[in-house]
Amino acid sequence: MPSRDNWKVPFSGLSEPGLVTDLYELTMAQTYFQHGMSSRATFSLFIRSYPPNRGYFVAAGLEDVLRYLEEWRFPEESIDYLVSTRMFHGDFLEYLSGVRFTGDVWAMPEGRVFFSDEPVLEVSGPVVEAQAVESYVINQVNLQTMMATKASRCVRAGQGRPIVDFSLRRTQGVDAAMKVARCSYIAGFQATSNVMAGKAYGMPLAGTMAHSFVSSYEHEVDAFRAYAESFPDRAILLIDTYDTVAGARNAALVGNEMKARGRALDGVRLDSGDLESLSREVRAVLDDAELPDVRIVASGGLDELDVDNLVGRGAPIDAFGVGTKMGVSADAPWTDMAYKLVQYGCRPVLKLSTGKVSVPGEKQVFRLRDAAGSLAGDVIALRDEDEPSAGAEGLPPEPLLRKVMQGGRTMEEAPGLDEARELLCRDLEALDDGVMALRDPAVYPVHLSPRLDRLRVDMEVSLAAESADRVAAGGTPGPVCEARPCE
Amino acid sequence: MPSRDNWKVPFSGLSEPGLVTDLYELTMAQTYFQHGMSSRATFSLFIRSYPPNRGYFVAAGLEDVLRYLEEWRFPEESIDYLVSTRMFHGDFLEYLSGVRFTGDVWAMPEGRVFFSDEPVLEVSGPVVEAQAVESYVINQVNLQTMMATKASRCVRAGQGRPIVDFSLRRTQGVDAAMKVARCSYIAGFQATSNVMAGKAYGMPLAGTMAHSFVSSYEHEVDAFRAYAESFPDRAILLIDTYDTVAGARNAALVGNEMKARGRALDGVRLDSGDLESLSREVRAVLDDAELPDVRIVASGGLDELDVDNLVGRGAPIDAFGVGTKMGVSADAPWTDMAYKLVQYGCRPVLKLSTGKVSVPGEKQVFRLRDAAGSLAGDVIALRDEDEPSAGAEGLPPEPLLRKVMQGGRTMEEAPGLDEARELLCRDLEALDDGVMALRDPAVYPVHLSPRLDRLRVDMEVSLAAESADRVAAGGTPGPVCEARPCE
To answer: pLDDT value at position A311?
Structure first.
């Protein structure tokens, strides 16, 4: 079981965290530095739109972000490399060599459900620092949120049947493999096959055998016997190497041999073919052999829609292993997650780029509930607004963003993976079934508070007008924000 | 430029390489160990089928596989963890604590083009070793081959225009970000925005500025001026934060100010909207301002089909930045790559699972060419076969798999990334245009040698018959292979 201690995994081997960034973060930083721009900036992290068939997201990745911000620096070998590029000035590199992250982070706890346009995390700090950590922050929260969301769909499809992560071999790299395992546990998976994830996150492990094991013996039944001898209490036999039903008969033979020795075969695994009809045939073979407790595990290119179909048709499958398609979120392998400047110094800011309009200001997200406790809609507000009033019978609105880092220091012990799993479970219990539908989900209501909406509209109008004016006027430089005192 | 020294990147931070594996690799290993099965096994790594719109693959990932095999071990903390799972016997863990990879590897060099069903790599060694490294070997070769293939499509779409990797923020984790940058260079990209990849692989870096930089100034033109001052020789200004054409006018203003100081604006970047029409409008603004040398760089959710469309319609775009959709291979985020046992001891083996039939025996792949040097088809043969005869006018067939590791030792200095890039370039020059088509590519001819085909058919027939017999006969155990002397 995940323990509090194990969960704080050592920051994942990035010995030069500052360099895990896009070049432009550093060129912009040098420009800010050289022009004395060091105002506090706030960046908001959110997903612009739902990928196909998604109606909600599961927050994940915060823990890695906090570790990164704590560790963020440019050791000597990083500085030496930057010198070698001949792009940077000595005084800027001198500054970089001593820089640490000194800002604040507000975030939703891992495991919370959130929706498009809602900030899941906001980073504030001197603009150079808050800007330069962008690439890693997006990378991790995008990856982990996407994977927790995908895994959560698999759990829903299983309707209570155990789901196991088999994705290590085809995730997009080792970092992804670790994070997929982690997020699948938050989402409610029973176990992972990834041994390193088992160690790092304290997750339960699961595994059966490969086709190669079966074919390394001349006869399938010998492979089954050898494995059952080595693992008398947890043998799951892979029965589709040659012919699934014949394999089931061999497994039944070995199962009864185990029974005679006072042991019990745990299960058989199907990994190919028509899983619905094969599972029925195999169940019949096992039942005929008086082995009703031997479980049937299915795997082989499954995603949540396959699991949903099999469960829906009543296939006698007791557990599912999901690998590749879950582990790369194959139907939606990226989200449109953005990290946007929303406040600089005293001034809320936004961009108007086609299709990428952002909402200005530091924010809070309030969650409304009806009298029964079901989620009734979210309100995105400015951070300093009062909470919206609850409906006549509703419970008080819940603010979702919490201050988790102040002045570069994490404010409280990270909750365990089990706590995140529990948070998700509770949020999903209160969420409308339609929003969780695996296909064509309903849209959960998310609104801007009246004050935030007014700010956004006013700024869009004035910026559009100003942009036109300025060009017409020949681009006379205006004062930078630094020149204007706050309040 | 990539140097030989920089390329041998330190093995990517896996301090416990043995645990980066699926649990079943270790449970099978214990079974082999306890039953004294230590024959030499050969596993073949290949891709079963083409993802949509793919007609070839680019070999990549070998270098990381070789480093992994050299480093593969179970340090004390790994053994301690395995003890804690209570799944393993003391004598097996004792063996694991001292195990090293002592086998051989045959592989295609990185950068070679290959096709479905062809082994791109074969691992031979004591069965426990060759089996237990499976998960990482598949993970890395699948990831890197997929990414090199995707990037190669982007280069083709660009028709000579520079392509730059902007994917770091939305790759599936940091390992993927590094490998995507690496593979994009093999594929012919000009540069990456990923600073750590620049350092690790000696790749050229590229970068511009973010919308947040522009909006941190009250006026767009001030942001442009500040950046141009800080980077007078390599400024590329992002012009779509508010209004692209107005932004182009601001950029032209700053470009002419730079000109007056004896400097030159390098380019402008478009990141949203209708890139074809905007690029024409922006080109006109820049030309009218007598800035014909200022380049237009386009980015913003582009994949190879978008690039192909823009280039095909003659949009005046000089370079492309490709990010998310390239960096996750969005249209094909996984391949059906498998690592299959093909020989155990003296005996070729195969599996018959529905849709997953494998081809037995240790292999070689021969490439045929016509008189002009163009690729004319590949032949998959047994490793000990003579090379197939060349056509009447053809060049001699070229064996593609080379022995790169023997007894756990890498046999030669790794070629540089530039060499892989050059290999790919030459293979693609000799490959039929139809096979490289971005949509609905033609199928490149790949055949089994007559001897290999005969072996496969014979084995399928006899295995199917035997499987049926054995079950009918009540599963009498047959001798394991160890009991049968080779030759």
So the answer is: 98
